[in-house]
Amino acid sequence: MSYVEEVFEGLKKKHAHEPEFLEAAERVLQTIAPAVEANEEKFRSTALLERLVEPERIITFRVPWTDDQGKHHVNIGYRVQFNSAIGPYKGGLRFHPSVNQSILKFLGFEQIFKNSLTGLPIGGGKGGSDFDPKGKSDAEVMRFCQSFMTELCKYIGADQDVPAGDIGVGGREVGYLYGQYKRIKNLYEGVLTGKGLSFGGSLARPEATGYGLVYITNEMVKGAGKDLKDKVVVISGSGNVAQYACQKAQQLGAKVVTVSDSNGYVYDPDGIKLDVVMDIKQVKRGRIKEYVDAVPTAKYVEGERPWSVKCDIALPCATQNEINGADAKTLLDNGCWCVAEGANMPSDADAIDAYQAAKILFMPAKAANAGGVAVSALEMSQNSERLSWSFEEVDGKLNEIMTDIYKKVAAAAKRYGQEGDFVTGANIAGFEKVADAMSAQGLV
Ligand code: NDP
Ligand code: 2IT
Fold first, then answer.
1. Cβ(399) – ligand 1 distance below 6 Å
2. Beta-ladder partners of 72
3. Which residue from 91, 135, 339, 346 has the fewest beta carbons nearer than 10 Å?
């Protein structure tokens, strides 16, 4: 058995009850195999892969809070501090009822390689809670965030672990979390990113993931001798990533025809009106079906995802495993020739097999959505030097970083004889830097 297979077999035995984590680990281990084989002796003798797949630390805690009726509730809070070889743990917090240790380990594991690809000094982590912010009042969300941070603050810090947003955690939540951290620790430091502009946030952080996704998609499309002008784009989700992916795609001349949420999708053949989406999601905190109230010519399809809509480019921006093999086949049958992942692990293994068999352009999440965490790292830099950069400066750096990631990923794929296979390219390019740092730092 190869070293990579051995490590994966061991992982399956230890963590049989963590399907999402095993799925992410298997895919990474499989694709980095050629890079591991090139250094097998050294990696095996230092148990490098065994260390890579085991988090440095997982913190789990209870989060008690009271609702507006005075009823008491308890949720579970987590922080997975996966790998600090190249910098402080860095990664978002997810508040969603589906959150469990397996999902956070998969996200934390992916984050290691994503953060490495940005070229910035950030390690990998992820956290969150099974708390459901949907339908909760502001006061309830605030009390929950305060309780969550009362425990989490013991384990994080500007040079230790810097959380940010993810599903269910946006500017409002980051604000409440930051306030409570400062109150308890009496420290005004950049311990969270995605902060408001009045207290140390970075311009262009809200836009960063969606913009970055479109910047790298544009590079990949240009690499194939095409452009985004007039291309039909299907987007899933209608949250932070989806909204700004839609905005940048439209600015580059593409026509975005769908957005969705967990209840269904909207198809607007004339092009999605982003101001309507933003009003529903950012102001009213409503459901995407309300779109058709404002735009009666659009269609709302309840209970389905948008993958049956004919498109050139698909940008999944909602959640993991939202495109399965059958969905991928539908996309391909309808002529889709490019998929780039705004969400983390939105395509399942069958879907990726289908894209690769059809040889379409495919950029996996850890490269495609790295713009968010990259600008988070730029927010950390601004906080350290106690300065704020202009929107143009941050956005310009984001564009450079995404272009650089595209080049790195394409070059690594080519180096291992897999030209155009950006899955292999992203995993190997991300892995190499982390492996180098881990090797240099000894058995820790
Ligand atoms: P938001 O909470 O802002 O939006 C999430 C969107 O996805 C909502 O439209 C939500 O619908 C939908 N969604 C969530 N869960 C499900 C589900 N189980 N089934 C169907 N739809 C679902 O989150 P973000 O936009 O920040 O995150 C979206 C994705 O992007 C996630 O995979 C996240 O990990 C990833 N990501 C986010 C980054 C960031 O900077 N925010 C950076 C890199 C990746 P509903 O309201 O109905 O739940
Ligand atoms: O998945 C991700 O990269 C994020 N949710 C953003 C993490 C961050 O620290 O900005």
1. no
2. 66
3. 135
